[in-house]
Amino acid sequence: MTDHPLPFRDPQLSFARRTDDLLGRLTLDERIAMLHQFAPAVERLGLGPFRTGQEALHGVAWMGPATVFPQAVGLGATWNDELVRRVGEAVGNEVRAKRAQDDRVGLNVWAPTVNLLRHPLWGRGEEGYSEDPALTSAIAVAYTRGLRGDDPRYWRTAPVLKHWLAHNNETDRDTASSSVRPRVLHEYDLRAFRDAVRAGAVAGVMPAYNLVNGRPNHVSPLLEQHLRSWTEQPLVVCSDAGAPSNLVDSEHYFDTHEEATAAALKAGVDSFTDHGTDSTVMTGRIRGALAEGLIEESDIDTAVRRLLAMRFALGEFDPELDPYADADALDTEEHRALALEAAEQAVVLLKNDGLLPLEPGTDGTVAVVGLLADACKLDWYSGTLMHRSTPLDGIRERYGAGNVVFEEGVDRIRLRTTDGWLQVPAADGVTDGGVRGAEGALDPALLAGRTDLPPLTCGEQPTELALVDWGDGVLTLRTDEGLYLSVADDGYVRASADEPGGWVVQETFRLEAVEGHDGGHRLLHIGTGGYVSVAADGAKVAVSGEKIPREDGTVFEPETVEHGADAVARVAAAAGTVIVVAGNDPHINGRETEDRTTLALPAQQDRLWRAAHAANPRTVLVLSSAYPYAVGEAADALPALLWTAHGGQAAGTALARVLAGDTSPAGRLPQTWYASDDDLPGLFDYDVIGSRQTYLYFRGTALFPFGHGLGYGGFTYSGLRTELDGELLRVSLTVTNDGAAAADEVAQVYVRRAGPAGPSPEGLGRPLGALGDPTDLPLRKLVAHRRVRLAPGAGERLDFTVPREELGHWSVAHGRWTVEPGAYEILAGASSADIRLTATEVVDGEAQGPRPVASRGLEAADYDWQKDTEILDLGKTRGDVVAPVSPDREGHLVYRDCDFGEGVAGLAFLVSGAGAISVAAGGHALITGVEGDKGPYEYRTVETALDLHGVRELAVGLSGNLRLARVDVITHGKESA
Questions:
Q1: Which end of the chain is more exposed for a tag (fewer CB within 10 A), N or C?
Q2: Are 647 and 583 in contact (CB under 8 A)?
Q3: pTM score, two decimals?
Q4: Sign of CA dihedral 77, 83, 84, 88
Q5: Which helix (H) or strand (E) holds 493?
Q6: Known active-site residue 240
Q7: Which is catalytic among the residues 81, 132, 195, 240?
Q8: Distance in angstroms (rounded) separating the CA atoms of residues 274 and 281
Q9: Distance CA 173, CA 118 (A)
Q10: Are 827 and 838 in contact (CB under 8 A)?
């Protein structure tokens, strides 16, 4: 070290100057190498290797033991920004601590996920916070602030928001396009990202696998148009794993990988996550794109500059000044207490007829039953547990082991073949394989199953297996020793897994009836698609890498030793109270790569609560799940019902404390619980406005509404005051605890446009359409919330400051955010449906007026209503068009309040493809054929004569493979405008 260090080593200089200096010292090859996820060291300058991407959704994931907090959706259910900030801080500290132990741990964390929980069947719903953009934003801001730290110069970790943009389907996730109209884009999907970026604690985003409006997210112009307009901070865009290759391989959006890589880089992607740790493929593509003139060195420099800026902020070049450099807080008492606090606050009491709280020592024994009663489930983005508390553990600890009985409720079976019984042979001399992934893995998808155990065989003595049907006939089979039947890379079936898991789950099977064989079934291994065949060398599903076909599978005759429902009924009848714990395994039937098929509780678990309740009316159902369920009959029949997301390491203790009344539940639902599948739109329908999705627009009766959650006491709301103060809406109210114990309450504030004559006495029951308002505004919209803890009899005045813009919406008529003049209702209460207080504020000003079509024309995607259309890409780099969803079904568009001024002679349609355009306006209607399809990106203008004047509604129909980009008017002088 000299007395005059290189400028990039000088901490007295700004990060920007130091970044520029370092960038200028790097060779072209060194700069290109930095664009891969695994950037190598530059030894000549003293730079170490750098990795983007460390999973940290609700704890440090994939890198061995760490504190495991509740799932993200559970953190959303706390509605507690300050708590979530402390969780983020703890996770950030553990990232730093584990980095000190293992330099494979990265400080660029890929968390949180802010995709909105638009559809409850989305497989990754467990990763998001809420269906509402305001709640999602608030929780994301809190978590990222904790991860980032509060030092003004250095960052504890560098959070990256996932997954940009409009991503709510695992089915066809890398080829499906989300059709997102401008209002949904601006009011819903962008909002979830915007506020967290504006708050200044976000280092970047990760684009999603899907396409939006026909264009892959990894080449989206929205990254520059919106994301980077929200902050002056350099934001790093990290690709999702394998997504750069998908641009060619699965999406076929580009012909060559060089074109695709160039387009992604120019769109704003800075770090390419592809081909694992092997950077040579991606760097080779970048060099190829440069050689072909598809990019310039300045494009490379722009991306590298952003990556270096993040590394400077993380203190890499100033270890002696980095306030987080010596962090060693891992599995501390504070973190364990915080995990318990978070799990307690995530519990939502859905129904209670007075059975709860259940005080220990009263009403006899407690029967704890159900498939999740003695489970502490982890998901794909969990760390390895250091502490474990199941519901059974927690209840035994709280109520006393002698007062608690347990029955899991599995169906116990054995499988007969023509050669004997399927059996698990003794594993003599084999040691415990330990917990899968406990040692940490950069890519847990590469973890292999055990091959050191003998495979299953046939013999005279059967092995009884615990069968669980997780829904749709997806089964797991487990031995009395707690080992699941699993398949390793060699294709043999062994009792070897402690839990189902892995990128491709190897522990699920399906029994398929054999036609013509009474009681005979073949056993399909779902992970490989092979059928179980029991041979002399053991049971297998594949031979030499080839899966065993159906006709070669062994025929089994299942014999049920005991039905789980019978065992549950027997235990329930002898108990004072029954706690049934049901739910999902986060690795089965709903996870990354796999959407759910139904809201229904799996039939086996449905039978268990019914059996328990038939035997004992004092039955409580606890749903421990990553998703909502449609459990209307249970809600009607049972005296008490609770939900908690998988609560991490302290889940069981937290649940027991809530059941016992040690703490009053105050979690709130972060998404609507619908009554049935019939209430749901299609999985690929992203138009939350048109298809009336989420609490914002849903007009049906929810099973449990957004924001719902009960406690053991009551709260009074009073003294609502509101005031419009310039660009702010000020709201204040008092919440008073009427109960006999200290408890939390979550005060929620909503707004909505009032009717033409002011507030409607029917309140939330009023259909919005009755107002004659054509803009389909939300029925109510969350704008503020606060979770407060109050002593018995205590009250607290709560003050909220809401930006005036929250009253508005995106105007497709004028292409801007608009707060229309008129009356607005402010609603305060305990949920979106439990409104206690209302007030009205009036916004003055001029209405925006009709669409200025005569002077500006209109963009096709700026419709007010559509049917059977989708939005696609105008070109590879910019713009939207509208097309029919099917060439043989006409699509319809409606544009309201189009102002044609003193009159126009006709309309000019900018289109590609071929088909027909139908037009109806001002009492006129016509159909124009369009011929000469030259491809989707070859546009031409088709003119129609149509005498229109004044303000009219314009209806347009599209058929064939026509794409409509925009509509202009033809003046009486013939030129289009």
A1: N
A2: no
A3: 0.96
A4: negative
A5: strand 493-497
A6: yes
A7: 240
A8: 8
A9: 15
A10: yes
